[in-house]
Hints:
Blueprint: H1 3-12, H2 28-46, H3 49-77, E1 81-84, E2 89-92, H4 93-114, H5 140-147, H6 155-171, H7 175-193, H8 200-232, H9 237-246, H10 251-269, H11 277-284, H12 287-312, H13 317-340, H14 345-366, H15 369-395, E3 396-398, E4 401-402, H16 412-415, H17 417-431, H18 437-451, H19 455-481, E5 490-491, H20 495-513, H21 516-525
Antiparallel strand pairs: 1-2, 3-4, 3-5
Helix pairs in contact: 2-3, 2-6, 3-4, 4-6, 4-12, 4-15, 4-20, 4-21, 6-7, 6-12, 7-8, 7-12, 8-9, 8-10, 8-11, 10-12, 11-12, 11-14, 12-14, 12-15, 13-14, 13-19, 14-15, 14-18, 14-19, 15-17, 15-18, 15-20, 15-21, 17-19, 18-19, 18-20
Amino acid sequence: MSPTSQLSPVLAQGGDIPAPHIEYGQIGPLLLVLGIAVAGVLVEAFVGRTWRYAVQVPVAFLGLAGAFVWTVLLGWRDDPHHVAAQGALGVDGPTLFIQGTILILALVSLLLIAERGNGRSGGLVGGHFAAQASALPGSEAEQRSTAAGITQTEVFPLMMFAVGGMMMFPAANDLLTMFVALEVMSLPLYLLCGLARRRRLLSQEAAVKYFLLGAFSSAFFLYGTALLYGYAGSVRLSDISAQVSKDAGSETLLLAGVALLSVGLLFKLGGVPFHMWKPDVYQGAPTPITALMASCTVVAAFGGILRVYYVGFETLKWDWRPYMWGVAILTMVVGAIIAITQSDIKRMLAYSSIAHAGFLLMGVVATSRDGLSSTMFYLVAYGFTSIGAFAVVTMVRDAGGEAGHLSRWAGLGKRSPVVAGVFSFFLLAFAGIPLTSGFTGKFAVFKAAVEGGATPLVVVGVISSAVAAFFYVKVIVVMFFSEPEADGPVVVAGPATAAAVALGATATVVLGVIPQPVLDLAGHATTHMFVR
């Protein structure tokens, strides 16, 4: 019996409404992150401007670290197979693994967001974010706030709200909770994308595009939810699955609802043909926010997709697998081919992210325990490599800020061989070269797809990987086999950025050389499959 039907007699008799039972211990990490976000808002309201940065940064770090430790303890001590908050949230093995991945990647991303740099040429004085978001680009107000050394600190509570939404998204056990999580995750990101300190018009354009297309995709998601409610009489994923098994409703409502819901999910992922926002937003957003989106948002989006298709639509897989095949093929091919034509580093990495989303979708198509565990491992590996790559992008700077155009990277291997070498290593990991995390992740996903009967999809994936290797190698050739320009960019590395690069490189090496512990952890998480 649903909670609504239980309430009806009570309301009819005029009795007290029973308080909902909330398992605070099971959803503690999520509540902690959202609580720290609220605390960050209070810090903005009551702490003086000169002290806000010194308060916000440790509070955010402690909140994320505490939530990560709590998540580990939940997976370690308990049998993670619970429903919480009146069935709205699922606490199970895959959810805890994905939430832990989001938290650890958010911690590394926070190093980039918190960077305030030094005063050298092209440096990061004041950080990556606009001194005053309300000031018009190029206006006198912006010049005054920049000259005064004002630093943006509301980015920290905004980030924490976004991370809270990301954690809720893969845990949502019904579609309305998932929609709320989608908005909690997306709305702060719309704001954060428009806060770049330099090239503010490009940043604000990216924010507007992301907002408009994001609102459009949210409408599709909500309309799909309404149609599925009309089919099943419930928005609970388990109830929808049960109705599909009975074949008791209108097939038109069901298939239309699944299609519209998939649009909203695939948009957040950046799957073709719903990828149009990704290159523009990745290019225009402050690079630390781009790193956060390329890692944590992708993990959260895939967590939501896995829960919807593995719990709600598992019995419908013969209907949705064919179009998921088509989306995966288009995403891999379009991402790899268009990336070749890009001359901007961040746009190239955006199309690379699109191609990797196609590789990850093969794990979804596999519809097996191996497909689930290989996808989760791939998310960890790709997340660390992405943050490391974007961290390097923030370090290569000229008088106008980050040196985004590929031609400006010419000869970087001679100017700064260590930085160029580390970036080359990240690119080779994206390409899937052996002894990197990218190779292990692709091998695991390809193996699961073959075992799931999707061998033609794997052939397309291998060809797309070969095509993608071309533009990765092209960047390496430009850095090491071109002469540096006289007015070429300089490398500016603050301590926090250097730490983020080191963590990304270390994870990329470890997950490539000794991946078995994380593979075993992902496999163990799938023994407690998504709770219904």
